[in-house]
Specification:
Blueprint (H helix, E strand, L loop, with lengths): L8 H14 L21 E5 L16 E5 H7 L6 H29 L4 E3 H12 L3 H13 L8 E5 L5 E5 L20
Antiparallel strand pairs: 1-2, 3-5, 4-5
Helix pairs in contact: 3-4
Bound molecules: zinc ion.
Length: 189
């Protein structure tokens, strides 16, 4: 069980200094690592020793807790879902790059003479402009915004007789509603 999963910040603020005082210092009980500079976010976590997930003030005493560094905490409490971390990273990337990329795509289409841009241009220029790998654009954002499965996307694709693929809008009033909280399909799908 992740000891932080149901420990409120109120509970953490209550227990952390008391546990530090009780163990005579801010250090990891696993390896001895000391707390870093006070101006930084703490590198030590409050750990419920018996892992029962109960951090309430009424049910516990200071002896039920210890401080652990992230490393020792991970050893004691291995995450059951290692993909959680990956998803968070992917969501971060989406927040940073997805919205600007797709807004730029829409602006390029609206600003173009014939209301469309080449898919290859979108990938290469989008990759360069927003620091996203071409593979991520081709796999993730293609799937989310440009494939036939992207039914709510304002964009659509067509390929001319020379096999050049273009991106255009399904209709001129299309609104771009970027939902970066919905995970994009994995590039491994
Ligand atoms: Zn440690």
């Amino acid at each position: 069980m992740n000891p932080m999963s149901n420990c409120s910040s109120y509970q953490n603020k209550y227990w952390y200094p008391r546990v530090a005082e009780d163990q005579h210092g801010e250090f990891c009980r696993g390896c001895g690592l000391e707390a870093n500079d006070k101006s930084l976010p703490t590198n030590l976590l409050l750990d419920k020793i018996n892992n029962d997930g109960d951090h309430t003030i009424k049910n516990n005493s200071v002896k039920d807790f210890q401080l652990l560094c992230h490393h020792c905490n991970k050893i004691k409490n291995p995450s059951k879902k290692p993909e959680d971390r990956e998803m968070t990273q992917s969501e971060k990337t989406n927040l940073r790059s997805e919205k600007p990329l797709m807004e730029w795509c829409m602006a390029e289409i609206r600003g173009s003479k014939d209301g469309q841009i080449k898919f290859d241009y979108f990938v290469s220029e989008g990759s360069f402009k927003f620091d996203i790998s071409p593979e991520t654009i081709e796999r993730r954002y293609y799937k989310k915004y440009l494939s036939v499965h992207a039914v709510s996307s304002p964009f659509t694709l067509w390929t001319d007789q020379f096999n050049v693929t273009y991106i255009l809008l399904k209709n001129r009033e299309s609104i771009l509603d970027i939902d970066t909280h919905t995970p994009t399909p994995s590039i491994n799908d």
